[in-house]
């Protein structure tokens, strides 16, 4: 078998490349070290189980809606302790709304009148079988996810400093950091620069221009698993109003739209991760006012133009900037 650059490899090709790398017959840049590959397998499989669990939860909502049970309109989490007790009672054959509502715990007891109304439906035997199967599958998936998380914690122990570094970035939690380390490893010497890492991950737009005509600059496909982790972290980061990443998103969204602005945030996060892993330095947020402080005159012109478009006449007077 011969490795052909640019050709999509199948499972047997990947195994063959790993054997060559371990034997020292292939450059390390082609295949990550074995511990990273093992971590990658675990984090990817855990992600599939989490996704499957969410699909089962969606099926549970559909089944309850089919039975006329509107528990999700009252309970924030229908799989919380109170909601799960009510669902188990429904599966066991209890359909009296008053009895089911009394299973509420703590703060949910304040909502007992609303629960009685929400639990009035036509939950019959086929719904009990349907919902019972879904709940058992969710329990199984919860157990699998917990086991995989324990295995990942053991596997990632040698990379604990790298995980802690990634977690210092706005938007990242431990689970997302584990996924990132599993996808890109900790040895940033494989990538000549942060831009090389972003290009490898498919987070750089293309620049296809010839004879004055510009063609599609769509980003190429990279690791979807890495993109999942970056997407979740970016969505969390843009909600931190005082952070640099949120300011970058707000600055680009009016011109590029949500998807491309979020893509720019993911690119910035990946470049920052490269620098953190390469230097060992923690993440330092530039602040939500970075773009304003970088070019105050531009910000002033933009605000004046907005007021003039609204029909105001603006006269500027020099003053002292607020601290």
What share of the residues does DSSP label as strand, in percent? under 5%
Oligomer: single chain
Mean pLDDT: 86
Distance between the termini: 66 Å
Major beta sheet summary: 2 strands, antiparallel
Continuous helix count:
14
Query: Percentage of helical residues?
Result: 55-70%
Q: How many domains, as an integer?
A: 2
Biggest sheet, spatial arrangement of strands: 1-2
Low-confidence stretches: 1-12, 24-29
Question: How would you classify the helix and strand content by structural class?
Answer: mainly alpha
Please write the string of helix (H) and strand (E) elements: HHHHHHHHHEEHHHHH
Tell me the Rg in angstroms. 26 Å
Query: How many extended strands?
Result: 2
Envelope shape? globular
Main traits of this protein?
single chain, 323 residues, mainly alpha, two-stranded antiparallel sheet, 14 helices, 2 strands, 60% helix
Description:
By secondary structure, this protein is mostly helical. It folds into two domains: 37-154; 159-203 and 222-310, no CATH class. It has 14 helices and two strands. Strands 1-2 form a two-stranded antiparallel sheet. A hairpin with a 2-residue loop joins strand 1 (209-210) and strand 2 (213-214). Helix 11 packs antiparallel against helix 12. The longest helix has 33 residues, at 34-66. The chain is globular, with a radius of gyration of 26 Å. The N and C termini lie far apart (66 Å). The relative contact order is 0.08. The model is unreliable at 1-12 and 24-29 (pLDDT under 50).
